[in-house]
Amino acid sequence: MERIKAIKKISSQLTKQLVICNIGFPSRELFHVKDLSTHFYMLGSMGLASSIGLGLAMSTTRKVVVFDGDGSILMNLGSLVTIFNQNPENLILIVLDNECYGSTGSQCTYASTVDLGKVAKSIGFKTIFFFKNSEEINFKKVLKSEGPIFVHFKVKKGNANVPVIPMEPVEIRDRFMDEIKNPK
After folding, report:
1. Which of 3, 8, 37, 133 is the most buried (most CB within 10 A)?
2. Element (H, E) at 12
3. CA distances for 77 relative to 17, 61, 136, angstroms
4. Phi, psi at residue 3, to the nearest 5°?
């Protein structure tokens, strides 16, 4: 399944959750399929979506959903250890695993030889979901589970042909901060 289709299927099942989205193309794809003020699109800071999501989850009672990539998780494996130890019940970490750094030229990652779900399990995550295709995605079950939750989703290599997000980083930040302070 293409990453944009996975993002579309999952985001169609989200309502008022706060969403942090990984750099580059995943953010562009999420913006294209469903733009909301509850979405924070990272335009940089590779490897930090999980850390930003953790900080947010620790500061709110709202559910926090992080769309991350295998390359970013591999770049910052320490975030998984920190998430496990902080144990936020409201955090859902989704790893869209295409076995490459899709936003920087599709160089291969080691996700083809390392099972990220097993890594999460070995760290101590108790709630782990694995999806391979859209027919399997019942995200309502994920949303009802207690976190922290690790969702491993295998997707095809490649990026959707979607335009750049037509907002400056400061606009994205301010809109998201306003949503946090004044939920609609």
Report:
1. 3
2. none
3. 24, 25, 27
4. -55, -45
Q: Is 75 helix (H, G, I), strand (E, B) or coil?
A: helix
Tally the domains of the chain.
1
pLDDT reported for residue 136: 66
**Residue pointed to by tokens 């399997």:** 136
Distance (Å, rounded) from C-alpha 66 to C-alpha 118? 19
Which residues span the domain enclosing 13? Answer: 3-181
pLDDT tens string 118-173:
999 999 998 999 987 666 678 889 999 998 999 999 999 989 999 999 999 999 99
Average pLDDT of the chain is 91
Write down the pLDDT at residue 134. 60
SS (H, E, C) 95-132: EEECCEECCCCCEECHHHCCCHHHHHHHHCCCEEEEEC
Q: φ and ψ at 31, to 5 degrees?
A: -60, -40
Using 50, 70 and 90 to split pLDDT, how confident is the model at 182? confident
Cα angle: 22, vertex 27, 28; to 5 degrees: 150
Q: Give the ranges where the chain is alpha helix by DSSP (H).
A: 3-11, 25-33, 49-59, 70-75, 78-86, 116-123, 139-144, 169-181
Report the predicted TM-score, pTM, of the whole model to 2 decimal places. 0.94
What is the C-alpha separation between 72 and 44, in angstroms, rounded?
Answer: 11
CATH code (residue 164)? 3.40.50.970
